[in-house]
Design goal:
297 residues; alpha/beta; TIM Barrel; eight-stranded parallel barrel; two-stranded antiparallel ribbon
Length: 297
């Protein structure tokens, strides 16, 4: 079992280079496998309540929350670390140009020595799509094309792709990932559609706010979808954040075992679960999780 950490997303610390260096050094020293930075380009003050993981459709965002650009932040993290894997959790794929994204991801993978893994999903905030100039409709299909187009640019020289939303003809993307087979994509989302997308296009699955029972059901969908497409799931990886489903359950070993038995190979904790942003509290959270949960699995 591996474990990763969502960093502090707080305007007091997240863009402070000295603080971030210390945080990353602590993660490596305490044996964390990966760090996962989320993405929201903007948060609307009066958004439509479309957030699907709460009863009222509102996202649980604290007043001091700040999310830096994940790829820029992870580039800084790459320069500050040697072993820590670098992950987005999750990148909102349809809001990005496939060609620009292919170049940015490949560059980061090369400069980090092949340590990048990309959690990617469709998001939920209509106002965010409007702000970046991308239609909210058909965002699932846009993500599918984005994934296919990015892989085409990494694989083919020259590359040609003709979709409904992405098109290019005989072009070269001169920067390639250094990981054999390309950078792994972890499909984000807890729905059946997300599970089918993971079975068809993902190297992994990163559901959010999901019970162990529902994870097991989604894994059945992933396996059936992959089998129907003649696709192997060798090396497929599942990442779960237990406390997103049951707040306060960070150190519930029984829950962690249930996720493991349902198919999870990596568990996530969020830095805010420490209850404090002091270096001592964050180190105690990470070391405690390593010793009390991960070691027991």
């Amino acid at each position: 079992m591996q474990f990763g950490v969502i960093p502090v997303c707080d305007r007091r610390f997240s863009n402070d280079p000295r603080w971030v260096r210390g945080f990353l050094a602590m993660l490596e020293a305490e044996g964390a496998e990966s760090v996962w930075m989320p993405e929201h380009v903007i948060m609307a003050q009066d958004y439509e309540p479309r957030y699907e993981y709460s009863v009222d459709g509102r996202a649980p965002v604290a007043p001091d929350t700040m999310m830096p650009d994940p790829l820029e932040w992870l580039s800084f993290a790459a320069a500050c670390t040697e072993r820590l894997r670098l992950a987005t959790g999750v990148l909102i794929g349809p809001q990005h140009s496939a060609a620009v994204l292919a170049k940015r991801l490949a560059t980061l993978d090369a400069l980090s020595g092949g340590r990048l893994q990309v959690g990617i999903g469709i998001g939920w905030q209509k106002e965010e799509y409007e702000a970046v100039g991308v239609p909210y409709a058909d965002r699932g299909r846009r993500l599918d094309e984005c994934l296919d187009a990015v892989r085409t640019l990494w694989r083919d020289d020259p590359a040609t792709f003709r979709g409904d939303f992405v098109r290019f003809d005989r072009v070269f993307c001169d920067t390639k990932p250094v990981q054999p087979g390309g950078i792994p994509f972890y499909i984000g989302g807890s729905s059946e559609a997300a599970a089918r997308r993971a079975g068809l296009r993902g190297e992994g699955f990163y559901p959010y706010v999901i019970s162990p029972e529902d994870l097991a059901a989604r894994m059945a969908t992933i396996r059936a979808t992959a089998a129907g497409a003649g696709r192997s799931l060798a090396g497929f990886s599942v990442t779960v954040w237990p406390a997103s489903w049951r707040p306060g359950a960070t150190f519930d070993l029984g829950l962690a075992r249930a996720y493991r038995d349902a198919g999870a190979g990596r568990l996530i904790i969020a830095a805010y679960e420490a209850g404090d942003s002091t270096p001592e509290a964050l180190r105690a959270l990470v070391a405690g999780y390593r010793d009390r949960i991960v070691a027991a699995l």
